[in-house]
Design a protein that fits this description.
Number of helices: 4
Helix content: 55-70%
Largest sheet: none
Order of helices and strands: HHHH
Radius of gyration: 16 Å
Structural class: mainly alpha
Mean pLDDT: 87
Shape: elongated
Number of domains: 1
Distance between the termini: 39 Å
Length: 118
């Protein structure tokens, strides 16, 4: 499900959340088994970098992508079992949820500041 968002020059946690929403949709409804869906999700994640995430979530993003990329085989493909693919899917889902919560808290804090300045 394309979001219509394009990548700007500045880090953008809202853009990252939209890309992670695509990842979650791919993991849940994409074709193939868990490994196929994780690899399709990884192709979406290449558009992001750790600076698109606040604090600890940037490190979590980097760890997920590095762990997946570390499973590349020299001749092509990936060394990953369905069980491992499911674990990666869970980590991506957790990252999406945590980023959505961080964005929600940030928006609530900004709204509160704006209202208190009126």
């Amino acid at each position: 499900m394309p979001t219509g968002l394009t990548r700007g020059a500045d880090p953008d946690p809202i853009y990252a959340q939209a890309k992670l929403r695509e990842v979650v949709r791919t993991l849940a409804t994409g074709p193939g088994n868990a490994v196929d869906r994780v690899l399709a999700a990884r192709r979406i994640l290449w558009r992001l970098n750790s600076q698109d995430f606040p604090g600890e979530l940037g490190r979590a993003f980097t760890a997920i992508t590095a762990d997946i990329d570390g499973r590349k085989k020299p001749g092509g493909g990936y060394q990953m079992t369905p069980k491992t693919g499911a674990k990666f899917a869970g980590r991506m889902l957790d990252l999406w949820y945590e980023l959505a919560e961080a964005n929600r808290r940030n928006l609530a804090a900004r709204s509160e500041r704006l209202l208190s300045n009126q």
